[in-house]
Every structure is written in structure tokens, then in C-alpha cells.
TrEMBL record:
<feature type="binding site">
    <location>
        <begin position="236"/>
        <end position="241"/>
    </location>
    <ligand>
        <name>GTP</name>
    </ligand>
</feature>
<dbReference type="InterPro" id="IPR031168">
    <property type="entry name" value="G_TrmE"/>
</dbReference>
<feature type="binding site">
    <location>
        <position position="90"/>
    </location>
    <ligand>
        <name>(6S)-5-formyl-5,6,7,8-tetrahydrofolate</name>
    </ligand>
</feature>
<dbReference type="InterPro" id="IPR027266">
    <property type="entry name" value="TrmE/GcvT-like"/>
</dbReference>
<comment type="function">
    <text>Exhibits a very high intrinsic GTPase hydrolysis rate. Involved in the addition of a carboxymethylaminomethyl (cmnm) group at the wobble position (U34) of certain tRNAs, forming tRNA-cmnm(5)s(2)U34.</text>
</comment>
<dbReference type="GO" id="GO:0002098">
    <property type="term" value="P:tRNA wobble uridine modification"/>
</dbReference>
<dbReference type="InterPro" id="IPR005225">
    <property type="entry name" value="Small_GTP-bd"/>
</dbReference>
<dbReference type="InterPro" id="IPR025867">
    <property type="entry name" value="MnmE_helical"/>
</dbReference>
<protein>
    <recommendedName>
        <fullName>tRNA modification GTPase MnmE</fullName>
        <ecNumber>3.6.-.-</ecNumber>
    </recommendedName>
</protein>
<keyword id="KW-0630">Potassium</keyword>
<keyword id="KW-0460">Magnesium</keyword>
<feature type="binding site">
    <location>
        <position position="261"/>
    </location>
    <ligand>
        <name>Mg(2+)</name>
    </ligand>
</feature>
<feature type="binding site">
    <location>
        <position position="260"/>
    </location>
    <ligand>
        <name>K(+)</name>
    </ligand>
</feature>
<feature type="binding site">
    <location>
        <position position="240"/>
    </location>
    <ligand>
        <name>Mg(2+)</name>
    </ligand>
</feature>
<comment type="similarity">
    <text>Belongs to the TRAFAC class TrmE-Era-EngA-EngB-Septin-like GTPase superfamily. TrmE GTPase family.</text>
</comment>
<dbReference type="GO" id="GO:0042802">
    <property type="term" value="F:identical protein binding"/>
</dbReference>
<dbReference type="InterPro" id="IPR004520">
    <property type="entry name" value="GTPase_MnmE"/>
</dbReference>
């Protein structure tokens, strides 16, 4: 991202992913867009003007040689009715690396410059088409890992989060007006600023709404980023087989030899529409093998990073003190106890049930080999994660940056409450806290921002967006 935001020039980039495909799009934005198009585009039917938002068929040509580069469709979108609210041209060509690069080179040669990552969306923000929360929602749509994440991003793009933030700001501005009236008219002896009334407004109407948004971040995070699901247990209890079953492919090596997995193995999967990073760990046991010992240490480290641990037990073997001691360590983490190999006869299922009954943990009984109760297991994983993260489903969920601003706003409001609850509250101090809280909310939608923040946000976008 450039160090200063200059929007008077014309920018261009390839807006579609690299590689072979049906269509590739070159996007141009800025006042020279139509001028550049006229220089490199030869329409099938000669024309003097281009109507906005209408496709035209023809060829991109090299102005120096008059040779065609590609057969294309082009569309001109006249400002302000475009993504950036500037004049925009899109060239829809065949998707191939050589021809798209050649077309882009011609566009740059005729007066455009290469767009930086996220610069088209940055211009949409700077030109007032979208606010900052909506701009971030666009990036979240592109990177969505689940349908739920996509829906949340679309809600934010439609302005639902911004509406909530603006409503909170309006209430705070109302409160601030009363406080500042008390400052401007001190002879009223705080009759204009009713401390008790303001305290109730902040405590009952504003802070609870902010807390709802803060709490909903955790649920939104699991749909945006996914969860870490760690499979652990003694060697040869079926950890790798369970991982393969959840992945529905033979990813982990499975053998009857204990200790096959000597390091953790990570793979991406989806369980009940939830993005999950499955982590198969080395068997947990005392060992003198230096390589296996490192694997066991890494397994315990992964437990600390887990959102949920599946503690796998082989019920074809008798309960031992070693398993009990191992489970005592597992209890420190969010977990499910999974009894595997229930299909084997004989087994010690009843003994295992009695052993774990006194611990009060939840038990799931499965057979990976026979695919028994695997659907039940995935359902319980989903329920365990979602119920742990959120008590109610929200349609508006902030990202980490927005959550941080909400937390700052909440702290300022709590400080304002402390002042209002004093025998003789100082309107000046209350005003400072309310203004700070309003500023934090304004950061979320971009009314107050810095160049460094904008650079950090938009640099995460792909080039061409």
C-alpha cells in the first residue's frame, strides 16, 4: 500500500485469479479509464460513444502494431455509479496468463498505473460508497470458509453492523449533549445533566448492546477462522484412523504397530459446515525413544492450542492406571472422551464406562472401523464448540479490530459511570469519557481512522479488489 492515498490517477489490475479459465477480467478505475479503452479497443461496430453499463464486443489491439491481442467484451461504468464511484472499465477477455498480462501492459502504457492490494475497495471507501466495516466485510466474503461466515460477512456488507454502531453513537451523542450543556451552563447546578438518568441510559441501554457485540465475536471467529480439533490418546487406539474417517480420505498412515505417528499431522476439514483443523498427535506414553519423546512433547503442546480435544480410548483393552493418570492431564482442556473399537468382541466397555462415570465427563462410543456413531461424534463436536462460544445466534458479529474498539468504548463508558456515581460528578470528566467512547465507535465504521490503519486493513486484500 502506498504511503499516501492519492486517488486522482487511474489504476488497473487483473481482477481474476491466475491460471487457465473461461474468463479473465482487467479492471480500470479513474478519470482516464474511458480514454484508455478508446485507444486499445476496436469495437465490432464502430461507434463514437459508449453507453454506461452496457457490454460491447470487439478486440483489444496493440496501438503501435494494430495487431489484435484478444477477442473481448468491455463495459464502461460512468461515475458515480460504479464500485469505486469513479469511471470504471472492465475488459472481459479469455483467461490466460500471456494475453491478460499483455492487455494489462497496454493499459499501463496508455496512462494507468498498477493498483495496489485492495486499492479499488480503498477508493470505494474514500469516495463514500461504503464505510470501513463494509470494506472489511468484502474481504471476509472473499476469504469465507463456511456458509455461516459468508452470511455474516454479507450482513456486515449490507450495513447491519454499521447501523448498530450508528444507533449506539446517537444515544451517546444525546448523553454528551446533556453533559456539555451542564458545562456551558454551570449555574443550572447539574439540573440539565441528571447523573442518575445518564447512568441508567449508559448502564441499561448502551453497555449491554456493546457487550452483545463483543460476546458475538467468539462465535463469528469460529466460522471465519475455524477451530483446532486435537485427537490424542495412547498409541494404537485409532487416532489416525479416526482422522482419516473425519477427512473421508486416507491421509494419515495406519498400521497395527504402536507409535506409527511420531509427530503431529494437520489437515483442513469441514464438520457440520464448521471449518476445522484436524490434528493427529503422537501416542501419549512414557518412552525412551528420543524421536517419539519429542512427538509426545509436541502432542501436549498442541493440547494447549486446542479448541476441543478428542481423548480416544481403546475399549478392547482393560482400564489401567496409566490411562487414568493421562486423563487427569486431559481434563484441564475442553474435551470429549471417545471410546473406540466398541465392535470388537470381547471388549471391556462396561469397565471403561464405570471407570469414567465418576469423572462426570461426556462419553461418545464409536467404531471407526465399522463407522458406528461417527455422525453422532461430529454432531457433538459441533454442539460442544458452538454452545461453548455463544449463548445465542447473532446475525452481526465484529472482527478482531472492531471487537477491540468496542472493548475500548466499554471501558470509557464504565469510567464515565464511576464519575456519574460520585456525590458531585464533574461534567468535564464525563464528557471526556463519552467523547472517547464515541471516537472508538467511529473507528469501527471509519469516521475516525489513520493512514496506517487503512494501509494495514486494505493490504490484506488481493490485487484487483
Amino acid at each position: 500500500m502506498r504511503s499516501s492515498f492519492y486517488t486522482e490517477d487511474t489504476i488497473s489490475a487483473i481482477a481474476t485469479p491466475p491460471g487457465r479459465g473461461a474468463i479473465g477480467v482487467i479492471k480500470i478505475s479513474g478519470e482516464k479509464s474511458l480514454e484508455i479503452l478508446r485507444k486499445i479497443f476496436k469495437p465490432f461496430k464502430p461507434r463514437l460513444s459508449f453507453e454506461s453499463h452496457k457490454f460491447y464486443y470487439g478486440f483489444i489491439i496493440d496501438p503501435e502494431t494494430e495487431r489484435p491481442v484478444d477477442e473481448v467484451l468491455v463495459v464502461y461504468m460512468k461515475a458515480p455509479f460504479s464500485y469505486t464511484r469513479e469511471d470504471v472499465v472492465e475488459i472481459h477477455a479469455h483467461s490466460g496468463y500471456v494475453n491478460l498480462r499483455k492487455i494489462l501492459e497496454l493499459v499501463l502504457k496508455e496512462g494507468a498505473r498498477p493498483a495496489q492490494p485492495g486499492e479499488f475497495t480503498l477508493r470505494a471507501f474514500l469516495n463514500g460508497r461504503i464505510d470501513l466495516a463494509q470494506a472489511e466485510a468484502i474481504e471476509e466474503i472473499i476469504s469465507a470458509k463456511s456458509e455461516r461466515a459468508l452470511k455474516l460477512a454479507l450482513n456486515n456488507l449490507s450495513g447491519r453492523l454499521s447501523e448498530k454502531i450508528n444507533t449506539l453513537k446517537e444515544r451517546l451523542l444525546y448523553a454528551l449533549a446533556q453533559v456539555e450543556s451542564a458545562i456551558d451552563f454551570p449555574e443550572e447546578d447539574l439540573e440539565i445533566m441528571n447523573p442518575q438518568e445518564l447512568s441508567q441510559l449508559i448502564k441499561r441501554e448502551i453497555i449491554p448492546e456493546i457487550e452483545k457485540l463483543i460476546n458475538s465475536y467468539e462465535e463469528g471467529k469460529i466460522y471465519r477462522e475455524g477451530i483446532n480439533l486435537v485427537i490424542c490418546g495412547k498409541p494404537n487406539v485409532g487416532k489416525s484412523s479416526l482422522m482419516n474417517a473425519l477427512l473421508r480420505e486416507e491421509r494419515a498412515i495406519v498400521t497395527p504397530i504402536p507409535g506409527t505417528t511420531r509427530d503431529f499431522l494437520e489437515e483442513e476439514a469441514y464438520l457440520q459446515g464448521l471449518p476445522v483443523k484436524l490434528i493427529d498427535t503422537a501416542g501419549l506414553r512414557e518412552t525412551e525413544d528420543p524421536v517419539e519423546k519429542i512427538g509426545v512433547e509436541r502432542a501436549f503442546q498442541k493440547l494447549k492450542e486446542a479448541d476441543l480435544v478428542l481423548f480416544l480410548v481403546d475399549v478392547s483393552e482393560e482400564p489401567t492406571m496409566e490411562i487414568k493418570h493421562l486423563y487427569q492431564r486431559i481434563q484441564a482442556y475442553p474435551h470429549l472422551v471417545v471410546f473406540n473399537k466398541i465392535d470388537l468382541i470381547p471388549n471391556y466397555l462396561e469397565e471403561w464406562r464405570k471407570t469414567f462415570f465418576k469423572y462426570g465427563g461426556e462419553l461418545i462410543e464409536i467404531s471407526v472401523k465399522k463407522e458406528l456413531n461417527l455422525d453422532l461424534l461430529t454432531q457433538r463436536i459441533y454442539e460442544k464448540i458452538v454452545s461453548k462460544r455463544a449463548t445465542a445466534v447473532s446475525e452481526v458479529m465484529p472482527n478482531l479490530r472492531q471487537k477491540t474498539s468496542l472493548e475500548k468504548a466499554k471501558r470509557h463508558l464504565e469510567d464515565a459511570l464511576k464519575e456519574l456515581q460520585k456525590r458531585e460528578p464533574l461534567p468535564e470528566l464525563v464528557s471526556i469519557e463519552l467523547r472517547s467512547a464515541i471516537g472508538n465507535l467511529s473507528e469501527i465504521i471509519g469516521e475516525i481512522t489513520t493512514e496506517d490503519l487503512l494501509s494495514e486493513i486494505f493490504s490484506r486484500f488481493c490485487i484487483g479488489k
